[in-house]
Amino acid sequence: MKLNGSEILIECLKREGVKTIFALPGGVVLKIFDMLHQQKDLDVILTRHEQGAGHMAEGYAKATGKAGVCLVTSGPGMTNVITALADAYMDSVPLVCFSGQVPTSLIGNDAFQEADNIGLSRPCTKYNFLVKDVNDLAMTIKEAFYIATTGRPGPVLVDIPKDVSMATTEFVYPTSVSIRGYNPTYDGNKWQIKQAAEAIMKAKKPILYVGGGVVFSGASAELIELAELTQIPVDMTLMGLGAFPGEHQLSLGMLGMHGTYQANMAMHYSDLVIAIGARFDDRVTGKVSEFCPHAKVIHVDIDPTSIRKNIHVDIPIVGDCKTVLRELNQILRASVNGEQKELRKPWWKQIREWEAAHPLSYQQDADGPIKPQYVVKRLYELTKDRDPIVSTDVGQHQMWAAQYFKLAKPNRWLTSGGLGTMGFGFPAAMGAQAAFPGRLVLCIAGDGSIQMNMQEMATAVVSKLPVKIIVLNNRFHGMVRQWQDLFYQGRYASSDLENTPDFVKLAEAYGAVGLRANKVGDLDAVLKEAIAVNGPVIVDVPTYRFENVYPMIPAGGCNHEMILEDPPELKDKQVGAKKVTPDGNDTVLTA
Amino acid sequence: MEHIISVTVENKFGVLSRVAGLFSGRGFNIESLSVAPTLDPSMSQMTIVTSGDDRIIEQIVKHLNKLIDVIKVVDLNESEFVSRETALIKVHTKAEDRAEALRIADIFRANVIDSTPATYTIEVTGDPKKIEAIINLLQPLGIKELTRTGRVAVAREPIRASAVQPKKVARE
């Protein structure tokens, strides 16, 4: 069958099981769009910015576990999608991005809309390809999907020059793929797993530290079995939320910079850290030299470079979380007995004491300003029965969402962890919604972050993606303000947004629904109304402007030394600190 | 500590920049790097001289292995190896220095591969200390140009069958 390059691309996508692609056209990809226009198997969601296309593909991938696909043009199309590629690379999201390139004869000539796509994307992709010959196209696409979705997943870029997308050749779909330099290890070393089992049996104060690897590997069931079998408490990273049920009695919640008191204390005082699909990020370890000073460390990860990158590991196991946990559980099932539970009783008593001493807390007065934590909590309580998918942007609202929205299952949590990309949440939610049209998809955003990809509201309306955005609106880059409060003597350099757009009117301008909750008493009704709308909604919730996220471990601080509340001198500094013009008038800051 | 890492890679465009980008992106050190095709023209052999403590070398080896175009990585310091470097040295020679330049070349078993009335180009091969030594001796005559290949290295073959094989750095 003779096909042109564009038809080969479409044919290969179909055979990879792709249903939806997120795309924005341009000169050198017109042939591909023309062919997409003439077929019915692939849905093309036209985004308003290539960054949006990239994040939508990420959201699609995180919610489905399959590779997300985006298609952009050369030059600025490519440079715009870089942020999404870098985000996907940091968070191990399987993504295949197709970029247009100027015709092969013009490459290197500084042609119109030319960029060195391979050079630009090299440090932020798992691999990238420039296809110079249409005969290599099918094999390249097969390899791209294989690399993106196997081992430690990640983004792969396929750069297609215009002439390659137009040239014709005999289409042969490759049946298999084999790359001699790429053979991820899935099965853990049996001896090491046995060592790990023995260490678990002996440990008095063990802790499970689980990350996004468990989600991508689909190992939640195995993790739950391990935790229940051994009665070991579970700490989750930001990326790992949902890997273990948030309401489970063995869950201590999130750990790290804004983790719960019990999660961080349990890490610090444990005698055995069992890290599964987590990478000892600096937001988790804090000060490396004082990280888990009493613990032996078991580290299960499919990426050997994650092991011993930041901290010393006693029992490294390179392998897929699911495969390794299965094997570990098999050994433990035969050997765990009541003795271990008895052994760990004092440990659990200690953890419950920590939990009781400093639970997550905030104070919501019935007639006071709305507290952001309360919004997340109410949203959680009102929607948990519907098993929603929740996305966030980056900042204070993200941490409150992580603390208070207790996810029961994996693949429900879309957040930008490693790169910390503001503007991620809304397009990611749209990508998940495209994959699951019937599901409730929530985007918890800040008023700073949401403005970074606001243009995608046009996409949501046109492509009928009924995402519900809840804006926790404090008219600040709140996390920046928090750091300025704590470490820069309250000098709010460029963190006060002073005036944010009227999000209700903004939603309406796009043809979406806008709602606002001004009072605590209105909140439930407004949230319920939003959820009932059959279309995209922005709910604007003006919140108390000076709320800070606690607990907090200052960057480079030690994990057991958490700041638990605003220092007493802070309150005086905030109020009256600087003049702002929320309504056009100069006023002194008030609570 | 200095390590010599032998890396077998796919012989295709862009591979060198992937390896170089890995070192620069992660702040690893490259002291020298040489690349040439192997017997199998689809593969190239890189010899990278780098330095770092054990933890850094472990990360370098792991990250090299992680690159998709990298087929095999051997840290030669894990066993015995031999290494050589070639230098081409163009020396100014006044009439009274020409005999001295030849004597020095002779002592180091170096070859004169080009000659003009005012210069000799000397080719010398050896370990880095030998290269440094001849450079030091020729310097007073006046070195016009100097180019060095960077080191290439290969593991020593054990004499007895039971002797320790160079430990292949596995992908754990």
What's the short version?
The complex is a heterodimer of chains A (591) and B (172). Chain A is of the alpha/beta class and 591 residues long.
> What's the story with the biggest beta sheet of chain A?
6 strands, parallel
Q: How many structurally independent domains of chain B?
A: 2
Count of strand segments of chain A = 22
Order of helices and strands of chain B: EHEEHEEHEEHEE
Q: What can you tell me about this protein's structure?
A:
The complex is a heterodimer of chains A (591) and B (172). By secondary structure, chain A is an alpha/beta fold. Chain A contains 23 helices and 22 strands. A 6-stranded parallel β-sheet of chain A has the order 3-2-4-5-7-6, sandwiched between helices. Chain A has a 6-stranded parallel β-sheet with strand order 11-10-9-12-13-14, sandwiched between helices. In chain A, helix 1 packs across helix 2 (30-37), helix 10 (220-230) runs parallel beside helix 13 and helix 16 (372-383) crosses helix 17 (396-404). The longest helix of chain A has 15 residues, at 50-64. The model of chain A is unreliable at 576-588 (pLDDT under 50). Chain B is α+β, with helices and mostly antiparallel strands and 172 residues long. Chain B has 2 domains: 2-78, 2-Layer Sandwich (Alpha-Beta Plaits); 84-152, Alpha-Beta Plaits (2-Layer Sandwich), CATH 3.30.70.1150. Chain B has 4 helices and 9 strands, in the order βαββαββαββαββ. In chain B, the strands form 2 sheets. In chain B, strands 5, 6, 7, 8 and 9 form a 5-stranded antiparallel β-sheet that branches. In chain B, a hairpin with a 2-residue loop joins strand 6 and strand 7 (119-126). The longest helix of chain B has 13 residues, at 54-66. The interface between A and B is medium-sized, with 23 and 21 residues.
